[in-house]
């Protein structure tokens, strides 16, 4: 954004540059609201396109697209942990990187707090699903690149789905697939899978990650202001939607499996 | 978050078995819902706009042990960003940052300490800087100048339950915060005389004559502000009763307990953080997140929400009582002189 | 100032000194720990109490890490498993070392170690495990070597750890205490104290009956509520006493424990400052 | 609701199975296939040699054969312009973000073009998380040079108000999957992204020192020069074989690599050779030993390839 740190390891631009602004936005800073939902019903989520096995260099991978949100995920490992003390269980390492062009304003290509907070949320969502006790001393690296994002909540949800799919694609032992769905409290309504603008207009948002096969929840992440009952109905709605997403993901994985089986024959 | 204390399997199972016993017993004799002694002091940093120091479970005799957290707010004047790159926003901003004293985590490497600070900062930021809590009196000049409210927290000692301590300190410091009163000033004088704006140099000179000493940056607007009051007596933050308290439920399914010590935290894989506000008739959740390895079900979460609300309300009430007492004490103090 | 003025300072207990303070002439006395010699004078290098044994003058620091001596009983925590040895944190300046050859191996106390034992070291002790051991010797670099070659020593279970300043643990006839409330205490001279459920001596006996599985087990016994309460009560008593900087002895601990039971209080009341003060007052009476 | 939709990415074409039938010492049995992959790991050089002796490459291409190229533009709505290129399995996404800055004092009328390639840990096990690897630094610099030299986007066209405000175009390319020859793929992605880029109409206000854009006026595409730089790379293996468009498996085994960047008229914009190109003499039709001019061969092949790429990929849709 404002100040570009000179970094001899990259091609550098001018010392300082700023995002451009529209004349119209200064006089009328409130953004129009009619773009919300785009004809979606409150309980509708954006269409999911999921493709396991995009990155053939990795042990497992997945690419997910939910309308404008586009995320690629690769799994490396389990491989020997380096420079860490002995641990009976394996380690799960999640690294998230936002491409510089993934947001409305350009992100400097340095690691920032948002990368880490999304990585933290994904780690929490996935941790309980992976059978870490089955590979002591080893690390599973989950690398995620966000190509485009439309809302942090949707990014965490889509990232969780992609990462869990990629884990399954890599043949790593998990208790179940982790699905994730976000919800926003819009007045008294619950809007699932809110876009960036919708979350900003809402009172609060919630991301729920669960393993539909076991009907257990691995992570809840709520921000903003909600009545306890509202939070609960967000959770229920998200969990119900996760069951549907689970079907899609399972299908995508099976399809991919049968494809590779045919190749082997 | 990596636990810093290593425990043997026998110690872990001793702690877990105690918590699952009926009635649950804990290493220090507390029941599952007991907190350690909490002490709180506000206005501890004279140069900050608001501050508080919280300790949980300090030894009453020699003051050793216990989780200790310091919070302070500092207000800064910011230009509203119109492509200038300063990042200021119309209506003001709130920013939290958590620093951990290396002395609080002697086992952690500096990289791990950085990560911990990042994570704690993220959790506080995502709750406290949410628009639903935004104070309305951070505007100085609409569209031009606003306050940046920096909330800095320092973890001095961590003996467990650092989240509850952080949020207690944050709420107390924000409660304690005084926003300096400002008065906007308008300059029309030389505009007419300048004849067709008269070039910028003339205007800037005008500014230099009258600008308050508080802000040394150039202000090229026709309007400015000054601080009429002595800095100590500002107004309270708008909606200061909304700032939430946090209650951490440590889960040993089916049981849960509050205010874990470091050893207990190391023995328990899963925690649920709940942030509540009771400023209106209806209670509100201001944040919720699970931390650690473990699973729950939605009905379980519903139960925990109910329980958590009960605990949070108790914390809320005793904190409010303490804050009012502190405030009264200070008013008396001031009246003495 | 001369130390000779205090002929009977051994009996009177303590005289304090500060670093840099000259204690006595180096010609008449020998310098011990906590002192150094400069221009024929013995000078203190730590803050603490002066002690004299015949011609040897030492200063014992009030707060310091544990200073090990051969034969000391210590409680430690495994920090690392290395080839044929464990590293043990014993609250000292360096990690202590426990050699594979210094532990009792399954199938007989005096058996030679085998390669298979080396592969199973984590089966005996793993990172985080607590153990009680004796200081056996010192390496040339000053690190202490421990051994657990007695049935009294070995892995710790059924209880919780309290850490206190090492100086508060005095050398006693026995560091294994059993309180009548069914609580065992192991007072490590390094300041780590293990408070656990009492295990009958008969259950530990019999050199032949050495059961590796039991000795190296990580599973706790069944512990009833009364014992748990007693354990936390004892833990609290220790915390209160150490916060008042009172050295721990077997009789003192017993007295203090009985006093808290007499008061018929709940364990958590011990948090209160006045209660702690009352406890200290009652047991220091008549001393 | 959640039906699968079309994506910016094509469905995966299954990687071509190694064409084992060409090699007499490998049968078609599954076990042998396994052996082949073990052999590939243990003796990569020998493995490649065996294939090349049969005039075929492990992925079934001829020595001078190219991998299929797929291009998709404009799918990233947060960017001013974007493109995705798949060259075989190598996948590169490039997004262009525009910002406004003051020009340099000595170049008052020129904007900035800032190309960077990121090779994240995700795209290959050989990259680690953290700051740009050496390879990424080298590639970024080469891309920068190719774009500058070709003058595909005259920097003067990025001027809003001379001496006051100019556009900065940050061209960030991210490699999603690294299967060799990232340079060709990235340059193609960058050029395609530039052709896809539109900018809002901007005006500099000399009174407020602000540069403001208009939402209502239509966005304008960049004023690109006719000459479009296209890169084609080759690898020399065992002083004998010239391999076009090398894969990640072949790359580390090469003696040398040659990259040719050509402009529209077939003019050479950049020619780069890494390593020494010592190629053995060959026998001509009459059985006489003649010197082989590899560089010339490569340039010729690059010309032919460029035409195909421009016609079928860049202007294909």
TrEMBL record, chain A:
- Keyword RNA-binding included in the entry's annotation: yes
InterPro entries in the cross-refs = ExoRNase_PH_dom1, ExoRNase_PH_dom2_sf, PNPase/RNase_PH_dom_sf, Ribosomal_Su5_D2-typ_SF, RNase_PH
Gene Ontology biological-process entries = nuclear mRNA surveillance; poly(A)-dependent snoRNA 3'-end processing; rRNA catabolic process; rRNA processing; U4 snRNA 3'-end processing
Q: Which domain of life is it from?
A: Eukaryota
Q: Which residues form a coiled coil?
A: none
Named from the GO MF annotations, one term is: RNA binding
One GO cellular-component annotation of the UniProt record comes to: nuclear exosome (RNase complex)
Domain Exoribonuclease phosphorolytic intervals:
45-173
Q: Which UniProt keywords apply?
A: Cytoplasm, Exosome, Nucleus, RNA-binding, rRNA processing
Q: In which compartments does the protein localize?
A: Cytoplasm; Nucleus
Which family is it part of? Belongs to the RNase PH family.
What PANTHER family does this protein map onto? Answer: EXOSOME COMPLEX COMPONENT (PTHR11953), EXOSOME COMPLEX COMPONENT MTR3 (PTHR11953:SF2)
Please identify the protein, giving its name as recorded: mRNA transport regulator 3
Organism of provenance: Gymnopilus junonius (Spectacular rustgill mushroom)
Lineage, opening ranks: Eukaryota, Fungi, Dikarya, Basidiomycota, Agaricomycotina
From TrEMBL, chain B:
Spell out the subcellular localization from the entry: Cytoplasm; Nucleus, Nucleolus
According to its record, what are the GO cellular component terms?
cytoplasmic exosome (RNase complex); nuclear exosome (RNase complex); nucleolus; ribosome
Q: A single GO molecular function, which one?
A: mRNA 3'-UTR AU-rich region binding
**KW Cytoplasm (keyword) present:** yes
Q: Name one GO biological process term.
A: U5 snRNA 3'-end processing
Domain Exoribonuclease phosphorolytic: residue ranges:
34-180
Q: Which branch of life, at top level?
A: Eukaryota
Taken from the record, one Pfam family name reads RNase_PH
What Gene3D superfamilies would the database entry show? GHMP Kinase, N-terminal domain
Q: Which UniProt keywords apply?
A: Cytoplasm, Exosome, Ribonucleoprotein, Ribosomal protein
Report the family membership.
Answer: Belongs to the RNase PH family.
Which PANTHER family does the UniProt entry name for this protein?
EXOSOME COMPLEX COMPONENT RRP42, EXOSOME COMPLEX EXONUCLEASE RIBOSOMAL RNA PROCESSING PROTEIN
* The protein's name in its UniProt record: Ribosomal RNA-processing protein 42
User: What organism does the UniProt record list as the source?
Assistant: Gymnopilus junonius (Spectacular rustgill mushroom)
TrEMBL record, chain C:
Report the record's Gene Ontology biological process terms: CUT catabolic process; exonucleolytic trimming to generate mature 3'-end of 5.8S rRNA from tricistronic rRNA transcript (SSU-rRNA, 5.8S rRNA, LSU-rRNA); nuclear mRNA surveillance; nuclear polyadenylation-dependent rRNA catabolic process; poly(A)-dependent snoRNA 3'-end processing; TRAMP-dependent tRNA surveillance pathway; U4 snRNA 3'-end processing
The record's section on SUPFAM superfamilies has: Eukaryotic type KH-domain (KH-domain type I), Nucleic acid-binding proteins, Ribosomal L27 protein-like
Q: Where is the signal peptide?
A: none
The keyword Iron belongs to this UniProt entry's keyword annotation: no
Output the superkingdom of the source species.
Eukaryota
In this chain the RRP4 S1 domain maps to 65-136
Q: What is a GO molecular function of this protein?
A: RNA binding
Key word Transferase present: no
**In its UniProt entry, what is this protein called?**
Exosome complex exonuclease rrp4
UniProtKB/TrEMBL annotation, chain D:
Gene Ontology molecular function, alphabetical: mRNA 3'-UTR AU-rich region binding
> Which cellular component appears as one GO term in the record?
ribosome
Q: Which Pfam families match?
A: RNase_PH, RNase_PH_C
Among InterPro entries, the record links this protein to:
ExoRNase_PH_dom1 (IPR001247), ExoRNase_PH_dom2 (IPR015847), ExoRNase_PH_dom2_sf (IPR036345), Exosome_comp_Rrp42_subfam (IPR050590), PNPase/RNase_PH_dom_sf (IPR027408), Ribosomal_Su5_D2-typ_SF (IPR020568), Rrp43 (IPR033196)
Q: What are the alphabetically sorted keywords of the record?
A: Cytoplasm, Exosome, Nucleus, Ribonucleoprotein, Ribosomal protein, RNA-binding, rRNA processing
**Cellular localisation:** Cytoplasm; Nucleus, Nucleolus
Record's keyword annotation contains Nucleus: yes
Q: Where is this region: Disordered?
A: 1-21
Keyword presence, Cytoplasm = yes
> Chief subcellular site?
cytoplasm
Give start and end of each Exoribonuclease phosphorolytic domain: 67-200, 228-304
What is one GO biological process annotated to this record?
nuclear mRNA surveillance
Biased region (Low complexity) positions are 1-11
Q: Which PANTHER family match?
A: EXOSOME COMPLEX COMPONENT RRP43, EXOSOME COMPLEX EXONUCLEASE RIBOSOMAL RNA PROCESSING PROTEIN
What family classification does the UniProt entry report for this protein? Belongs to the RNase PH family.
Protein's name according to its UniProt entry: Ribosomal RNA-processing protein 43
What organism is listed for this UniProt entry? Gymnopilus junonius
């Amino acid at each position: 954004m404002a100040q570009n740190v000179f970094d001899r390891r990259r091609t550098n631009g001018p010392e300082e540059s700023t995002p451009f602004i529209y004349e119209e936005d200064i006089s009328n800073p409130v953004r129009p609201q009619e773009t919300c939902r785009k004809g979606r019903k409150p309980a509708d989520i954006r269409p999911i396109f999921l493709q396991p096995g995009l990155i053939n260099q990795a042990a497992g991978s997945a690419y997910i697209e939910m309308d404008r949100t586009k995320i690629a995920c690769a799994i490396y490992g389990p491989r020997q942990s380096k420079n860490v003390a002995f641990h009976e269980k394996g380690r799960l390492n999640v690294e998230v990187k936002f491409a510089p062009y993934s947001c409305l304003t350009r992100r400097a290509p340095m690691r920032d707090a948002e990368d880490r907070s999304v990585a933290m949320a994904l780690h929490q969502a996935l941790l309980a699903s992976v059978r870490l006790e089955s590979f002591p001393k080893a690390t599973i690296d989950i690398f995620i690149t966000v190509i485009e994002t439309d809302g942090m909540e949707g990014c965490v949800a889509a990232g969780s789905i992609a990462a869990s799919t990629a884990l399954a694609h890599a043949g790593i032992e998990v208790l179940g697939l982790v699905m994730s769905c976000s919800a926003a409290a819009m007045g008294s309504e619950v809007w699932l899978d809110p876009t960036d603008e919708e979350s900003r207009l809402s009172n609060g948002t919630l991301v729920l990650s669960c393993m539909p096969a076991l009907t257990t929840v691995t992570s809840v992440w709520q921000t903003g202001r909600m009545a306890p009952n509202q939070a609960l109905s967000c959770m229920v709605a998200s969990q119900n939607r996760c069951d549907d997403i689970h079907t899609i993901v399972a299908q995508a994985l099976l399809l991919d499996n049968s494809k590779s089986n045919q190749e082997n024959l | 978050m990596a636990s810093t204390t290593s425990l043997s399997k026998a110690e872990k199972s001793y702690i877990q078995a105690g918590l699952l016993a009926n009635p649950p017993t804990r290493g220090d004799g507390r029941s599952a819902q007991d907190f350690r002694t909490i002490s709180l002091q506000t206005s501890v940093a004279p140069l900050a706009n608001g501050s508080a120091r919280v300790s949980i479970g300090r030894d009453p005799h020699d003051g050793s042990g216990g989780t200790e957290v310091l919070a302070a707010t500092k207000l800064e004047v910011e230009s509203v960003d119109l492509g200038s790159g300063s990042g200021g926003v119309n209506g003001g901003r709130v920013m939290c940052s958590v620093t951990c004293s290396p002395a609080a985590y002697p086992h952690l490497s500096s990289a791990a300490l950085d990560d911990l600070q990042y994570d704690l900062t993220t959790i506080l930021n995502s709750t406290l800087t949410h628009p639903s809590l935004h104070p309305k009196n951070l505007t100085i000049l609409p569209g031009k100048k606003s306050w940046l409210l920096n909330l800095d927290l320092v973890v001095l000692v961590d003996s467990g339950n650092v989240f509850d301590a952080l949020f207690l300190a944050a709420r107390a410091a924000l409660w304690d915060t005084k926003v300096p009163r400002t008065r906007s000033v308008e300059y029309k004088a030389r505009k007419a005389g300048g004849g067709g704006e008269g070039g910028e140099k003339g205007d800037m000179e005008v500014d230099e004559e009258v600008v308050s000493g508080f802000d040394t940056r150039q202000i090229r607007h026709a309007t400015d502000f000054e601080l009429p009051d002595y800095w100590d007596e500002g107004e309270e933050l708008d909606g200061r009763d909304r700032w939430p308290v946090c209650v951490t439920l440590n889960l040993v399914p089916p049981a849960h307990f509050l205010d874990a010590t470091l050893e207990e935290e190391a023995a328990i894989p899963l925690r649920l953080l709940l942030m509540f506000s009771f400023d209106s008739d209806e209670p509100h959740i201001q944040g919720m997140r699970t931390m650690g390895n473990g699973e729950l079900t939605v009905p379980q979460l519903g139960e925990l929400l109910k329980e958590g609300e009960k605990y949070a309300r108790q914390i809320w009430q005793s904190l409010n009582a303490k804050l009012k007492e502190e405030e009264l004490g200070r008013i008396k103090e001031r009246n003495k002189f | 100032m001369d130390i000779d003025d205090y002929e009977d300072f051994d009996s009177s207990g303590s005289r304090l000194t500060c670093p840099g303070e000259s204690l006595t002439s180096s010609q008449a006395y020998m310098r011990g720990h906590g002192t150094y010699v400069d221009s024929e004078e013995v000078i203190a290098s730590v803050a603490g109490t002066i002690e004299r044994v015949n011609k040897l003058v030492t200063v014992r620091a009030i707060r310091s890490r544990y200073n090990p001596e051969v034969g000391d009983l210590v409680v430690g925590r495994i920090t690392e498993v290395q080839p044929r040895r464990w590293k043990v944190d014993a609250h000292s300046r360096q990690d202590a070392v426990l050699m594979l050859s210094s532990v009792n191996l399954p199938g007989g106390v005096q058996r030679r170690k085998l390669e298979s034992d080396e592969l199973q070291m984590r089966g005996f002790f793993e990172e985080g495990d607590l153990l009680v051991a004796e200081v056996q010797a010192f390496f040339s670099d000053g690190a202490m070597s421990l051994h657990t070659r007695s049935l009294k020593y070995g892995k710790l279970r059924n209880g919780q750890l309290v850490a206190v300043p090492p100086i508060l643990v005095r050398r006693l006839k026995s560091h294994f205490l059993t309180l009548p409330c069914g609580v065992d205490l192991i007072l490590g001279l390094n300041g780590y104290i293990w408070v656990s459920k009492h295990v009958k001596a008969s259950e530990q006996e019999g050199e032949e009956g050495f059961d590796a599985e039991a000795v190296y087990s990580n599973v706790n016994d069944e512990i009833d509520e009364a014992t748990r309460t007693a354990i936390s009560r004892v833990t609290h008593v220790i915390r209160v006493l150490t916060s008042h900087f009172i050295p721990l002895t077997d009789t003192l601990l017993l007295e203090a424990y009985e006093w808290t039971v007499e008061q018929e209080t709940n364990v958590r009341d011990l948090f209160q400052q006045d209660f702690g003060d009352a406890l200290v007052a009652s047991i220091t009476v008549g001393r | 609701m959640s039906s699968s939709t079309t994506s910016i990415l094509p469905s995966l074409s299954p990687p071509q199975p190694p064409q084992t039938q060409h090699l007499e010492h490998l049968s078609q049995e599954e076990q042998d296939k396994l052996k082949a992959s073990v052999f590939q790991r243990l003796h990569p050089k020998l493995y490649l040699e065996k294939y090349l002796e049969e005039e075929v490459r492990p992925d079934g291409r001829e020595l001078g054969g190219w991998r299929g190229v797929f291009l998709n533009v404009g799918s990233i709505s947060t960017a001013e312009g974007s493109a995705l290129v798949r060259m075989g399995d190598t996948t590169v996404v490039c997004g262009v973000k525009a910002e406004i800055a003051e020009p340099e004092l000595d170049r008052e009328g020129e904007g900035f073009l800032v190309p960077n390639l990121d090779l994240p840990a995700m795209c290959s096990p050989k990259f680690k998380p953290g700051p740009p690897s050496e390879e990424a630094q080298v590639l970024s610099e080469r891309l920068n040079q190719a774009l500058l030299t070709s003058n595909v986007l005259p920097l003067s066209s990025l001027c809003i108000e001379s001496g006051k405000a100019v556009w900065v175009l940050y061209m960030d390319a991210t490699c999603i999957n690294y299967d060799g020859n990232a340079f060709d793929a990235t340059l193609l992605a960058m050029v395609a992204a530039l052709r896809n880029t539109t900018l809002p109409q901007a005006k500099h206000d000399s009174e407020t020192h602000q540069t403001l854009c208009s939402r209502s006026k239509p966005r304008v595409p960049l004023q690109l020069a006719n000459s479009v730089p296209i890169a084609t790379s080759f690898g020399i293996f065992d002083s004998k074989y010239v391999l076009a468009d090398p894969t990640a498996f072949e790359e580390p085994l090469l003696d040398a690599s040659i990259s040719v960047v050509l402009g529209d008229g077939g003019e050479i914009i950049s020619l780069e050779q890494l390593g020494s190109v010592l190629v053995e003499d060959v026998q001509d039709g009459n059985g006489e030993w003649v010197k082989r001019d590899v560089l010339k061969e490569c340039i010729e092949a690059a010309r032919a390839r460029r035409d195909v790429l421009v016609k079928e990929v860049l202007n294909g849709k």
